[in-house]
Amino acid sequence: MVNTLTPNELLHITRGEILQQGPLSSINYISTDSRKIIHGDQTLFVALKGFKVDGHDYIADAYTKGVRIFVVQHEDTDTHIPNSTVIRVKSTTEALQDLATWNRLQYEGIVVGITGSNGKTILKEWLGQILANHFDITKSPKSYNSQTGVPLSVFGIERHHKAAIIEAGISQPDEMAKLQAIIQPNIGIMTNIGTAHAEGFSDQKEKLNEKLRLFKDAQLIIYRKDHEAIHQSLQNLYPADKLVAWSEQPGGDYTLSIKKEKEGSKITLIKSDLGLYTFHSRFTDEASLENLRHTIVASLVLGLSEPQIQQSIQELDTVEMRLTLKSGIHQCLIIDDTYNNDLAGLDIALEFMNSQRPKKRKILILSDLLQAGDKGSVYSHVNALIRHYQLDMLIAVGTDIHRLKSAPPCEVYFYRDTAHFLEDFPGLSFQDDLILVKGARVFQFERIVDALQERIHGTVLEINLNALRKNFTFYKSLLKPTTKTMIMVKAFAYGGGATEIAHHLEQLNANYLAVAYTDEGVSLRNEKITLPVMVLNPVQDSFGNLIKHRLEPVVYSLSFFRQLGEYCRSNNNAISVHLDLDTGMHRLGFGEEDLEELRSLTHRYPELRIASLYTHLAGADDAAHETYSMRQLSLFQSMCSSIQSFLGYRPLMHALNSAGIVRYPEFQMDMVRLGIGLYGVEVNGLHENALQPVSVLKTTISQIKLLKKGETVGYSRKGTMNHDGKIATIAIGYADGYDRRFSNGIGKVIIHGQKAPVIGNICMDMTMIDVTGMDVHEGDEVIIYGAGLSLKEQAAAIGTIPYELLTNISSRVKRVYYLD
Ligand SMILES: *Cc1c(COP(=O)(O)O)cnc(C)c1O
């Protein structure tokens, strides 16, 4: 909610012109996303022009939600939005920023601005959590830290808040000045400076100085003095009395040293007046400990006492900012959001829920909202959200949440606490439902997730749907806007899980899906995926299913054409099919010599409608085969024109896979078939940095053993300790898809950022690794594939290709999806 704004003020702030004068009601909310509008009659809709979506396309939707006042930038915006006020500005992004600046100026509390390369979001969450135990505060939702995210965060600052914590991130020079004007932090925190996002900047120093502009008008700036470059730049830019430095070494305003303990770390704080305090935390990794110390210093600066901080620090947990999606019992799908519970977060989680594929019911399990402020208005907002997202059932846990009692328009159950819900739980019959579990930390809703989650074993494949989207966008950027995309979700979407990935791509407006077998297509249809689906290897006994589920088979031979034609004729069906033309792959497909006969078959069986013609390149990923590829492409074009001439209509034409899109974009034709690239592997090695790894395979340490030099490890005694040392047994084996060829040091895994080799032979369900000299514990996380262990390198080490590693990950490995 923003400070109430009149249309005249709006006109003045945005320096716009009135295109159309409608009613002049005042504004309490500003929205850029029509899906999220709740109080339409009090909402201003700002149509942003984004890279992927254009807000102007959603004006009609906002209108149906009750909005009657709009800010637009299109020259040709249809001004006939009935009975509405429309204001046109040069740039809607700038207008949004100006509105945020205006909202900020009305606020008299403290604004904490956080920037830096890493840790911003965690620091914001932690500081927010500690402060929220004592004051009514607000903070940026998720990682809303961009040129449009920051204004939206600032709109969340209300008069009653005592403090606001806002994070700022930039990717281009000159962006920070704009964010500074919007945030105007009183207190600044600089986390650190890394190499990430260096693209738009000429060098490290330029980037650092740009970031530090956020603190132009801040009274105090908190930073770590051990980061020499930051210390230097701050000293050059700002007077010494503004700087609050902490350091591991004596000499800063606060000295914060670390000692590792048995179960975590001890942080000792020495203040310049020699006051001495200790804090305990279960974190041991460097990044968390740095963030923690920033949090401690910021809390002290904001007036909390050491005992208050000590108490809160224990409760801090790894920030599961990410909304994760897990398979549940009885075919349910669980959205796990058990970290915190405030209104902004609830809204985000419900929206995420809404974008999932439909299940039978939408169920929300919700705890008390730990949000200071007027409880009545908090819960009436919750009510509005429940109505807006059309939930079928609410399970409310807590003592405060009873305030909802009067209203929610769905089935509701109340429980005093989590234990009471879990007692009752076996009696609640969830089946094929979509369940959002959203609770504040103290309610320990992870126990609920635990009860609802389908158990398999400790190994998971995490799939980052945002990375998938970015990879998709990268390939789209190489294509003309009109070129269609067919996404290969064969083989369980290269191991990633076909349904979730297909659903996500449907949301991203992909045009076609392709699977290997009819059964794979049938399961997509059963999961309510509606995109057209091509089936690469249909077999005769699946004809009925193809037709029943509107699946489109590849026809690759004359005899297959005849069989399918006969089947359709006798059942009175018609079907869309795709013809595979063999131009040199020599796998399946029609050769040139088949075209004559194909002509007569197409005439004899008009039941088969040819939706597309395609070919597949045998060596698209290698420059060495360029001449061959060009020959394939030209043969394809000539075969296509013969076929078109006898068909009398023009099917779609497509030839390029992921590697082909990068190498031969001029042959994109009507459509491309995107596979491995989407999953984060650029097989040409030309654009590796443009893609993001989509999946991380991880497991945990089951046991640690100390062994003496000369002792052997595992089957056939293949591993020998060549020193006194330590091994860890991890919960993954070849039956999970961890290839046995990784045995005996060929494979490496990552624990706490460090590589450790496999020792001995890989077993069916377990693997031993040498962790001599490493500080590791039972239960620690182990990364098998993921950042730092590129799939390409791993595959090369055992003489295979990334495709095989991905598709070999066994179906017993739980797939978990998240959005970061
Ligand atoms: C698997 C497959 C693709 C996708 O190949 P990638 O190398 O994964 O991009 C494209 N076309 C056909 C016919 C395929 O079988």
TrEMBL record:
Coiled coil: none annotated. The keyword Ligase applies. It catalyses: L-alanine = D-alanine. Keywords: Isomerase, Ligase, Pyridoxal phosphate. Catalyzes the interconversion of L-alanine and D-alanine. May also act on other amino acids. It comes from Echinicola rosea. Residues 694-818 form the Alanine racemase C-terminal domain. The active site is at K490 (proton acceptor), Y715 (proton acceptor). Its EC number is 5.1.1.1. It comes from the Bacteria. GO terms for molecular function: ligase activity. This is Alanine racemase.
